[in-house]
Design goal:
Oligomer: heterodimer
Helix content of chain A: under 10%
Order of helices and strands of chain A: EEEEEEEEEEE
Strand content of chain B: over 45%
Radius of gyration of chain B: 14 Å
Shape of chain A: globular
Helix content of chain B: under 10%
Largest interface: A-B, 25 and 21 residues
Largest sheet of chain A: 7 strands, mixed
Strand content of chain A: over 45%
Structural class of chain B: mainly beta
Chain lengths: 113, 113
């Protein structure tokens, strides 16, 4: 059973389009995160939600809008995609706000042409 | 100065070698420290937490020097399967940190026959 799953795994799209990435966790965790890993491999947090409430909102363009319909899901919608949005986006989950371990999904590789 | 700095490598070592990775962090209020491992085109996974007294897990030894704000990971008797990127990860003290992990850019290790 996949603990943290993301769809799609690959996403290739044109500049200016709007796209969504979905994340689901079956670990019963109450906190979920979105990270961006750029071409230089830096992994940076974008958002985190605890019990569907937005907790962390790093300096991210407002073209990025997370949505948490329930504790097990955290989706990421991106409007007006730009070349610089090309990256791997990882979803993660944990139990509690200061856990020792965060469990990552397999990543969504977004390429904006 | 980056919040978490690592030597990106790459480190190329033969099987059986001992290899050490270093990491420095800038926030003296950092509370928790970890090493994550990321295989090529995969998600990061927790390798081990790092405790003040130092800790060992099989062939892996992690150490923390709070005074110097320095973390290390030692791998003994390297295996081919140890080839990966090793990410130094730091979490600030409680309060508003809310599970925010800060990742170094990673150190690439390649173990060859």
């Amino acid at each position: 059973d996949t603990a943290v799953s993301q769809t799609p795994k690959y996403l290739v799209t044109q500049m200016g389009n709007d796209k969504s990435i979905k994340c689901e966790q079956n670990l019963g965790h109450d906190t979920m995160y979105w990270y961006k890993q750029d071409s230089k491999k830096f992994l940076k947090i974008m958002f985190s939600y605890n019990n569907k409430e937005l907790i962390i909102n790093e300096t991210v363009p407002n073209r990025f809008s997370p949505k948490s319909p329930d504790k097990a899901h955290l989706n990421l919608h991106i409007n007006s995609l730009e070349l610089g949005d090309s990256a791997v986006y990882f979803c993660a989950s944990s139990q509690g706000l200061n856990p020792d371990t965060q469990y990552f999904g397999p990543g969504t590789r977004l390429t904006v042409l | 100065r980056k919040e978490v700095e690592q030597d990106p490598g790459p480190f190329n070592v033969p099987e059986g070698a001992t290899v050490a990775f270093n990491c420095t962090y800038s926030n003296s209020a950092s509370q928790s420290f970890f090493w994550y491992r990321q295989d090529c085109r995969k998600e990061p996974k927790l390798l081990m937490s790092v405790y003040s007294s130092g800790n060992e897990d099989g062939r892996f030894t992690a150490q923390l020097n709070r005074a110097s704000q320095y973390i290390s990971l030692l791998i003994r008797d390297s295996k081919l399967s140890d080839s990966a990127t090793y990410l130094c990860v730091v979490r600030p003290a409680g309060g508003t940190s809310y599970g925010k992990l800060t990742f170094g850019q990673g150190t690439i290790l390649t173990v060859h026959p």
